Amino acid sequence: MSGHQTLNDEELVVLLKKGNEAAYTLIFDRFYGLLFAHAIKMLQNEDEAKDVVQELFEVLWTKRHDLILKGSLSSYLYASVRNRILNCISHKKVECKYLESLGRFMGQENEHTDYYVRERELKRIIEAEIGALPLKMQQIFKLSRGEYLSHKEIATRLQISELTVKTQVKRALKILKPKLGFILFVLSLLKW
User: What is the pTM of this model?
Assistant: First the structure.
């Protein structure tokens, strides 16, 4: 390898293309430190800079047969590092946007889930309170508020007077309002 030390970059590239490991090692030794320093300056992260430069040298070796330089080896290596860094930065931006979007989605999902849980709980409480009404009052109230039947339709269906229906609905509301009003008040205090 000592004979390779005096070779210029173009001569090293010719040997590299032929698979000469000593030429590859010399290119690595000649440029690694400079490329690494350049990558650190741009990325501000030692591990990422190391990864970028090492990946470049891996590709340089694996694709050595296809290597076509339009300028000097150093300009090719610097341009390659710069492009990899730009790809890395671009990938980070996409990753950040994705994570932000995911975070917003998860927040919305939690809000929706929380809303549905509260809605189910409130529905269960209301149904329990309606279930505690006297049977006939419960039946009339469910037809009125659950099936949206008029007092006349309920009276016809149950074969009772409209006045009885009206009275039973009023009484049911009189019983339920204080109980459910208090529950809604408590829920609002708990930030439900």
Answer: 0.48
